[in-house]
Amino acid sequence: MLTDIEIAQQAKLRLIKDVAADLGIKEDELEPYGRYKAKLSDELVKRLRDKKDGRLILVTAINPTPAGEGKTTTSAGLGQAMAKIGKKAIIALREPSLGPVFGIKGGAAGGGYAQVLPMEDINLHFTGDMHAITSANNLLCAMLDNHIQQGNDLGIDPRRILIKRCLDMNDRALRNVVVGLGGKVNGVPREDGFIITVASEVMAILCLAKDIVDLKKRFGNILVAYTYDNKPVYAKDLNAHGAMTALMKDAIKPNIVQTLEGTPAIVHGGPFANIAHGCNSVRATKLALKLADYTITEAGFGSDLGAEKFLDIKCRYAGLSPSCIVVVATCRALKYNGGVSKADVGEPNLDALKEGIANLGVHIDNMRKYGVPVVVAINRFYTDSEEELKYIEDYCHNKGADFALSDVFCNGGEGGKDLAKKVVQACEKPADFKFLYEDSLTIKEKINKVATEIYGADKVNFTSSAEKALADIVALGGDKLPVCIAKTQYSLSDNPALLGAPKGFEITVRDVRLSNGAGFVVVYTGDIMTMPGLPKVPAANRIDVDENSKISGLF
Questions:
Q1: Rounded to two decimals, what is the model's pTM?
Q2: Closest of 236, 214, 352 to residue 281, by C-alpha
Q3: Could you give the CA distance from residue 164 to residue 159 in angstroms, rounded to a whole number?
Q4: What tens digit of pLDDT does each residue of 396-421 get?
């Protein structure tokens, strides 16, 4: 059996100019990064501005196992399957972070015969967007520390600095650091720390900005600190936003690549969904809608995280309205939610499946609350028994949910034709898309709405520090912004041990922070980390490169 990377390396890629040409993109509207990847120019965006949008399909999932359950694989396979049934489709995905690539999950460009290529490039440095985001964030941090060092005209209180440096790598040793040591010439000593790049506000801004002018404005509005007399300090007060935008002038342009079967894919932006808003850039999605009849995009982790934020944050700001939501479910994740350990989810266990399948029911019900047709994609693994698959199908049927068995991992687009047909049918059904909450609600009311209606919590508790932070945000006029809740991906609750469809639990909000440039309020629950650590045996251990520069072990 071939590994994912072996399948990818054996594929015959089309020249990216030919892939783009199929979408009506002119060669001079491409900015090539080699033969198989390119950035899409601002001129293309302007040319297509008045063209009618195609249909938008969101791919989300149930609560996953730590290895993930194949949303990207399903998205890539669905795009390929659309072509098989004669539909013009494009995929719009997030860029992988190096954190999970070298951590638990490995690569994140799909799997088997439903991959986005060139997978080595996409999983590693791609077109440099992650590095640009890291540099822009850290430039802001450097300019802030330099301002304090050079006289501190703004009167910034070093104890009330709100931004952290970032790095696109899992590194727990950098969570809490002290900077400015070594004497007066090296700056003012203070506590600092690092977050992973994909959790940074710069990443969030990239993914929500409509153009470079909006990008610069949002950068300027980043709340970076408070003064000794309790006044807010923004990035524009440090005059950092112009230089930050200069670093991002290429990164703001979406990237075009292809699937294993030559289906076009736009891959751009990559915030995590457990600690950020979990979907690719607005620019990429809106451009994809102009280029094809069907745009397939994904949101990170389960629908309680990525889909909720896609629908309540991204769609709100971008004016998007999905025609169909695909919920990916697997036997192994349902068994995991039924109490089976990660190591044993490949073993047949109908009792555990029956115990965990309520998790699927919650995700179906939650997505229906947005007024959009829902299709369940049962992502097949070779370890699944026919009895288990039949049980999931019967469950979906009894809930009145459309479903299809997806075998795109083993059979590419051919294995997703039934799913593609169901999705096309769903897109033709009437939709009445609506947000879960209105802007007029207070921050607390919005948090309660998500916690009770999506997570199923009985109550939300706020720590004293969260209450204080919330009061500061309200004082700055942030009360009407949407909320971006940072929460574990493994449970509908804020406790990763509460699997399935837990009842009788409460959510605890330990901190609340204003992402003023991005335009939302980040709500921290549980023990969620903004700088993950590597596992005991990281995926990096199996990644290697030979004397011919051929990479192995990458997923």
A1: 0.95
A2: 214
A3: 13
A4: 999 999 999 999 999 999 999 999 99
